[in-house]
Amino acid sequence: MSVDFVLLGGIEARVDGVPVDLGHVRQRSVLAGLLVDANAPVPTARLVDRVWGDRPPQRAHATLYSYVSRLRGALAAATQDVRITRRTGAYVLTVDPSAVDVHRFRDLVARARTAGEDRAATLFAQALALWRGDAFGDLDVPWFNALRASWHRERHAAELDLTDVRLRLGRHAELLAELPARTERHPLDERLAGQLMLALYRGGRRADALAHYQHLQRRLSAELGAEPGPELRRLHQRILTTDPALSLRPAPAPSAHRSPHPVPRQLPSPPGPFVGRTREIAALDRTLHAGDAPGATVVISTIGGIGGIGGIGKTWLALHWAHHNAAAFPDGQLYADLRGFSPAGDPASASEVLQNFLHALGLASTEIPADLPGRAAVYRSLVADRRMLIVLDDARDAEQVLPLLPGSPSCTVLITSRRRLAGLVTAYGARPLALDVVSEAEARDMLVRRLGAERVAREPQAVAALLGSCAGLPLAISVVAARASTHPGFPLAALAEELRDRSARLDALGTDDPVADLRAVLSSSYDALDAATARVFGLMGQAPGPDISLAAASALTALPVPRVRSHLRGLEEAHLVQETRPGRYRMHDLVRLYAAERAAQDQPGDALDSALRGLADFYAATAHDGDRLLSPQRTPFGTDLPDVTPGAHPLGTVETALSWFEDEHLCLLDTHRCAMARGHYPQAWQLAWSLDTFHWRQGNLDDRTAMLRATLAAGDSMGDRAQRALAHRLLGRAHAAQGRHEEALADLHVALTLFEEAGDPAGRAQTHLNLALAWEKHGDDRQALAHALKNLRVRRTLHSPPREAEALNAVGWYHARLGHHERSRRYCEEALALCRRHRFREGEAFTLDSLGYLAHRTGAHALALAHYGRALALRRELGDAFEEADTLAKMGDVCHALGRPAEAREAWEQARSRYLAQRRLGQAAEVEGKLARSGPPD
């Protein structure tokens, strides 16, 4: 049974040629969004964005879940070869990539670009035959529209590559039947124009070839104010002079039988022992061995955010592979250090490099043309049909490299660069190979090679600290190893201690060699930035958190989003930042240190403080608005703050708010710490308040407590008594949830006193509710009920139905725990009616949980399960993972009482998983005991 998925001309699935009913267009778009990243997790928020763009439905996650369920059913009924599984916060579609036409297309194109001519023509034709129309059909969503345009560019590039192959095979006559129509569709494509000109010339239509050039020249001038590029101008000149080299030549004899030429061996020694990089070596090997001849160009760059610093091991990898495979290039190896980012001198000119290459290929100085085009033409002629390896190290940009590319498919070119050289990839078919930092195991192996296994094994803690400071950067590891090896008697712990100080880490990783000194290597990339981009780079280094969103970067830099995006693209091109996913940027640890250092040197202190205050304002404002969405019934933070704060990132829905808090959580925690350290106390307090609901629902009690405690330490910054009372109340509730009874009572009684002094009855009532929780956790339900009744008496006078419902439920809950079942039911049913009347979903979930508990205690297990089921659905809609765990545990108890062991076990296992994730170890152990007593699963 074979399955095929179509994305290149609609969205379809077929099993043994029979179409599968995939449902309506939105459901099919969910499938397409997963197939694009087949076998990789697609985060739920990202999938929602792909399917709905900026117009998601109110319950997007629930709707998405239903679509995925239907797709599972449709696919499972047709084939067992495809699975859609749920992982934490993501979905994964598991399938053989060759079953998806776009992945099959890319595989065929990649193989074609490394194959011999005849085989390449066949593979390209097979790849292009997979296209049946526009990618994704007429689906009109921003993400799919952008991807469609990108894939169509890939298709066009493959068509151009196939045309080149057919021209080399002498099939110009058949091309003349199709190229004119293609040039009509792409009238300004100079590569396509050149192909048509060459086909016309070889078909005996020299005048038509020249006429087409003049037509294109006029059109470029009229529409773009530009002239044809150098490659097309050279082709025009060669056609004008009837260059015999343009005519087809017979296929060359094998390299071993040609007349002897100088065989250059220019590879320098590889820099030190090589460790790891297994995946990258395999990728380079595939480039060499996939076709009949090497014939590929590979750009060895880096994962964004680390490459701009150098020292990631690009040259190390290129030279290691080149030496290991030198025998595959019997006609020689050329090498040039292009000095693109060298602190020791200016970048090498292409003319200078070509002069050295031509000398190595046997030309005397008098035979070398003076101009760059002449040198490039002679160079291409000399390497034509020769099996050679050309290594171009440390390229600055594509313009520097283009004249150095051979015209013959028999040559392999390795280019290393801190930039991605995307122009070479898209226009010339170069294959990108991105390096990341080395793994922990590889980093340790590097140290062992330099220092010996015995010394490394002797100080495991120091070694771990050293490698942690180097953050996987080969250059940093080499510097550390060199320093340690020059003092074999010194303990490694001494060097680890030196590196532990972040402010001095770049000094500790310095050397006297500007090429190997980490700060000097970073400076060479920094100095290439314009002033505005350099400012953004420095501020990024100062920003708290492990990464930053585009909107936050806009707030940090006080620049509009389009302008800051432009600067970030420049930094990404320089590999000084990495866009880890759409709209989020990250720096390598050592880049961040350098960026922060430069910001401190180059920007006034008040400007830095203003930037960080602006970022804290943005986070505090957006967090406040997010909390208002998560808990609209909560007492507002301040009477002067609206529900939507000016300057905040727009959120709009509960789902969006939850996703924002999840994405920004570490940044928010770090921003709070930074704000406290800099004395930005109002922003710190607003952040602590705004994160409280999210922390509670996620069961993130440690961060919640730490944040509130730190904020209270700056008590004088709180302003009025009511704010200090609120902080003490929130901290007391956090202590209560963690079972810290004495600390909870202390903070809650301080809060009660301050609320009384401030004349705030609502604050006093809520404190009594929190005291009830504290006494419940301490095991005294009578004391808890007393405080719950005090809360209710005040709430009945304040005309706030949601809070009155909350108070009614609390009284009903404690009556249930004390065995007062009828009184409990009356209070809870009154609470439930109020919650539903005023659409207080959080209160409804708590009240249903209370009614479930009451039904279970009175033997109405089926009713209990129904109440708990509705409560669980609400908890999940609200993103309340903390209470969800408790509800699941109770559902397990009810299922066990109903004699449904499998369902009980499933609920308990889910509860245990959530308790462990929330570090609620006591509850996890209690559930574990129930699982053990229930016996093994069926």
Short recap of the structure:
Helices cover 62% and strands 7% of the residues. It has 938 residues and is α/β, with parallel strands linked by helices.
Q: What is the SS-derived class?
A: alpha/beta
Mean pLDDT: 83
Distance linking N and C termini: 32 Å
- The total strand number stands at 14
Tally of separate helices: 44
Main sheet overview: 5 strands, parallel
Helicity, as a percent range: 55-70%
- Low-confidence spans: 249-260, 511-517
Strand order of the largest sheet: 8-9-10-7-11
Categorize the overall geometry.
elongated
Please indicate the percent range of residues in DSSP E strands (runs of 2 or more): 5-15%
Radius of gyration: 34 Å
Account of the protein in words:
By secondary structure, the chain is α/β, with parallel strands linked by helices. The protein is 62% helix and 7% strand. It has 44 helices and 14 strands. The strands form 4 sheets. The chain has a 5-stranded parallel β-sheet, with helices on both faces. Strands 1-2-3 form a 3-stranded antiparallel β-sheet, with no helix packed on it. It is elongated and about 105 Å long.
Question: Can you tag this structure with a few keywords?
Answer:
7% strand; 44 helices; elongated; five-stranded parallel beta sheet; 938 residues; alpha/beta
Helices and strands in order:
Elements: E1 3-6, E2 12-15, E3 18-19, H1 25-35, E4 42-43, H2 44-52, H3 60-78, E5 83-87, E6 90-94, H4 101-112, H5 117-129, H6 142-168, H7 172-175, H8 179-185, H9 190-202, H10 206-224, H11 230-240, H12 278-289, E7 297-302, H13 314-324, E8 333-337, H14 350-360, H15 372-383, E9 389-395, H16 398-401, E10 412-417, H17 422-428, E11 431-435, H18 440-451, H19 453-458, H20 460-470, H21 474-486, H22 492-500, H23 505-508, H24 518-526, H25 531-542, E12 547-549, H26 550-557, H27 561-573, E13 578-581, E14 584-586, H28 589-602, H29 605-630, H30 654-678, H31 681-690, H32 692-698, H33 701-713, H34 721-737, H35 741-758, H36 761-777, H37 781-795, H38 801-817, H39 821-837, H40 841-857, H41 861-878, H42 881-897, H43 901-917, H44 921-933
Parallel strand pairs: 7-10, 7-11, 8-9, 9-10
Antiparallel strand pairs: 1-2, 2-3, 4-6, 5-6, 12-14, 13-14
